[in-house]
Amino acid sequence: MPTTVQTVTAIRPGEAVTTIQQLPYFVGISGRTAQATGLSMHVVVIPPGARAQPHRHLGYETGLYVLSGRVLTRWGDRLEHETISEAGDFLFVPPGIPHEAVNLSATEPARAVVARNHPGEQDLVEVYTPPA
């Protein structure tokens, strides 16, 4: 019976990639970069005054840790609920919850570490259009 060799993988993010949410991501741990099977972890940057495309994550939980900036997260079927996260705050987004993130600064980017219990980088993100 063959033995599987496990290894520790160090990743230094390269250039930012643009996500379905229309935000720059710096890809860290994923199935592609580290052969992860149940986790992905990245850094997201929300440029000054920018916002994410409303979206939802299908089938996995998302946790964020805000490194810098102030971010308004609107969530719910009509994006009718709001919470503000600042540097040092954690934010949990359950699977399937429509949401968008808005950088409240017109001059400084907001940065956060994003962790998901899914190894894909963008595989299960769906753009969401709230009802009128």
Describe the structure.
- The chain has one helix at 31-34; strands at 17-18, 24-29, 40-46, 55-57, 62-68, 70-75, 81-86, 90-93, 99-103, 110-116, 125-127.
- The model has no long low-confidence stretch (mean pLDDT 92).
- The strands form three sheets. It has a six-stranded antiparallel beta sheet with strand order 1-2-3-10-5-8.
- It is globular, with a radius of gyration of 15 Å.
- A hairpin with a 5-residue loop joins strand 6 (70-75) and strand 7.
- It contains one helix and eleven strands, in the order ββαβββββββββ.
- The N and C termini lie far apart (59 Å).
- It has 132 residues and is mainly β.
- The protein has a single domain (17-127), classed as Jelly Rolls, CATH 2.60.120.
- Helices cover 3% and strands 42% of the residues.
Mean pLDDT over all positions: 92
- Just give the CATH class: Mainly Beta
Percent helix range: under 10%
Number of helices: 1
- Biggest sheet, strands in spatial order? 1-2-3-10-5-8
Quick one: how many beta strands? 11
Number of domains: 1
Structural class: mainly beta
Give the CATH topology.
Answer: Jelly Rolls
Helix and strand sequence: EEHEEEEEEEEE
Summarize the structure.
With 132 residues, the chain is mainly beta. The protein has one helix spanning 31-34, and strands spanning 17-18, 24-29, 40-46, 55-57, 62-68, 70-75, 81-86, 90-93, 99-103, 110-116, 125-127.
